[in-house]
Amino acid sequence: MRDRARGCLLGLAAGDALGAPAENLTPAEIRRRWGRLTEIEGGGTDDTEYAIYAASLLVRHGHGLSAQDVAAAYRAEIIPRVAGPMRGAGFSELGTVEALRRGLEPPLTGLVHAHGWSDGLAMRAAPYGIFCPGDPAEAARLVEQDGLVSGSGEGILGGRAVAGAVAAAMGGATPDEVVSAALSVIPADSWTARNVVRVRDVLASVPAPGGRNLERSSPGGSGPDGAGSRGSDPGGLDPRDPGPADPASGGSELVEALHRAVVVRHYPWTDVAPEAVALALAAFLAGGGEVEASVTFGVSLGRDADTIGAIAGAVAGAARGERGVPARWAARIGPVTGKCLPVVAGRHVLDVADELAEGL
User: Fold this and answer.
1) Considering the entire predicted model, what is its pTM?
2) Quick one: which of 30, 201, 247, 319 has the most CB atoms within 10 Å?
3) CATH code of the domain containing 131
């Protein structure tokens, strides 16, 4: 469990950092700039910092965590340190801070602003899955307590889906079982569930790059290079191939099909939970559960690329463990700076993962 926990949060931080420069870009623009984005250029965003903060709440309160505990923590540890703008914070988190300052309590704090459907909860849901290995329902219940403070509706459902997926991956589920677990903890007629089903259908119908079928492989061991065992995983996309982000490989057809299935093109913002969660799970399936293949495909989809990469990396990292994260990516992950949340400055995701594992 410790190895899977470390893989999960390391994968989250790596996906966040890899996708950060591609945030809000189109797949075509990403291809123009990088061809295929495979190397981490800088640090992560609020996704990693909020995941670390969520983990700290679990370490303190365990399965007894309540929305009131989360609101009290915001008031004691986050709001007093917000002297100016919260750099990089999402709309839902900014709205929550203002609601708490006004004296509101959850669930009103997540209902009063107009961004309850944001992927802010989904981006930080992975620790709840780590804390409930093999128990998607409990992971979803816990993350909802966090979500009631900052979100509502589909925003909470997106967090539930990610927490459920990570919990299943922590328990050794196959990629298909992981996605089924995500669907099991949200209503079948929800926007999020419909999007997840749509991308799963796209992956079953659109040819994979190079003519390979996107067969789902079960999580396996890791190779000596720290990037996972490719030889025993024929269903995954080999990160060394041109891959889905290269139009010459035919992968652009898959990217466009996924966009047609779930992207709300007319909406000006990209942090839409049903969209980001569905695209991240699609990337996880397309990558056969491998961290590098899943994350690089995820960030090639553009839109909220850092969050898509973070979710895909978290789920794949939980499935593959720490050695499943490429060593060159792991070397680029350092302690967070606290640029958005000063309370977590200096903390490293591996230390946080160890704390969560100790509480299991």
Assistant:
1) 0.89
2) 319
3) 1.10.4080.10
